[in-house]
Amino acid sequence: MSRRPVSSLFPLILVAVLAVLSACSTGGGKAKYEKNSSNSGKPLEVPPGLELPKNNETLSVPIVSGRNDQARSPVIDQRLLPPTPQGRLVQEGGIRYLVVNQPPEKVWREAQGFFRSLGFKIEYQDPKIGVFQTDWQKNRVYNPSNWFTRLLNKVTSSGLMDKYRVRVERIEGEPNQTRLYITHQGLEEVAINEDYPTEVVETRWQPRASDPELEAEMMLRFLVFLGMSEEEARQATAAARTEPRAEMRESDGVPVLLVKENFARTWRRVGLALDRLGLIVDDRDRSKGLYFVRLGEDFVTHHVKEQGFFDRLFKGEQKVADKHYIIHVDERGEVTVVTPHDGEGKPEKGEIGKLLIKLLHEQLR
After folding, report:
1. Among 19, 75, 201, 356, which is most buried by a count of CB atoms within 10 Å?
2. What's the rounded Cα separation, in Å, for the pair 339 and 347?
3. Which among 178, 138, 134 has a CA at the least distance from the CA of 159?
């Protein structure tokens, strides 16, 4: 939380006006991060459990197996970038991901190098499941981009902060192709006591919704980072309209989500939704349709807004963010059913199960 004297508001208002007027000269896009010189020039760190590639060695990322995507998947309406040596952007319903024409171990290193080039640090990584997460960085897309930008950045807040989670997946039967998902989480700065004649203005950071357009922008920028021309990378920015594909139900008192898509597509969409929600995926078993998750601090901060919710739910237990749950994805005929379970595998009938299904529905519908 920060405090600002009212007497200082006029210059800040002037700064804000100048920022808006100069925003049109920022070159477009929804993301502008201040590059951290301490990040540049450092060699890429090889994550634990991953060595630099030698001959045919591969990254320990779980291989898609246990189900035949081609046999089980109907023809999918996809929006693709034109074929290029680097890869393409694929849209399936409400999700977008990259298919990169490189093996997973190389995509892992390139993706980390890309985010470091933007000023991010790698806050968390787990090569076993092919996931890493950046730290928070201020998004200065609305700050002026002229000669006094550097001075303004020292005395004003950008009002927005972003972090990203990246998931790398091997494509079975395609050793030189990789799926790459990028999910966004955001914060915004808001005033909490700006009523006149208060002498100080207090602000605090609060969660804002994940932004699919920012995710798409990062994917396109990554393709440019890999060598695609900017013109090619901007040819697939429009999102396709989709019909509702998910419905909440109850089965024997257990909240469930019915998704009108096949297993392969639902599995990918659920994984992306878990990342967007800030849940920590500790492990997954695609052959059984299981995601093993922890609530995580980001999930607690972003999605539990009702005061006392966790106090009632867990009766004051410590380390709420470390609570474990299992999300089961099961194909049944023409629909796929998503069900929450507790850490022991029992169907989760309580408030947390309802909350998880509600939030997954918002992401998958």
Report:
1. 356
2. 7
3. 138
Query: Do 2-233 and 246-364 agree at the fold level?
Result: no
Q: Does 246-364 carry CATH code 3.30.310.170?
A: yes
User: What's the predicted TM-score (pTM) here?
Assistant: 0.58
C-alpha angle 48-267-360 in degrees, rounded to nearest 5: 100
Per-residue confidence band for 51, with pLDDT thresholds at 50, 70 and 90: very low
CA distance 282 to 64: 17
CA gap 183, 202 in Å, rounded: 30
* Separation of alpha carbons 61 and 280, rounded Å: 17
- Rounded to whole angstroms, the Cα distance separating 351 from 314 reads 11
- Helices and strands per DSSP (H, E), number in the chain: 10, 16
| Alpha-carbon distance values, 231 to 81, 83, 308 (Å) | 11, 13, 50
Q: Give the separation between CA 237 and CA 31, rounded to whole angstroms.
A: 15
Summarize pLDDT for 179-201 with one digit per residue, the tens: 999 999 999 988 776 555 556 66
Q: Provide the residue ranges of all domains of the chain, joining segments of one domain with +.
A: 2-233, 246-364
CATH of 2-233, one of 3.20.20.70, 3.30.530.50, 3.40.50.150, 3.40.50.880: 3.30.530.50
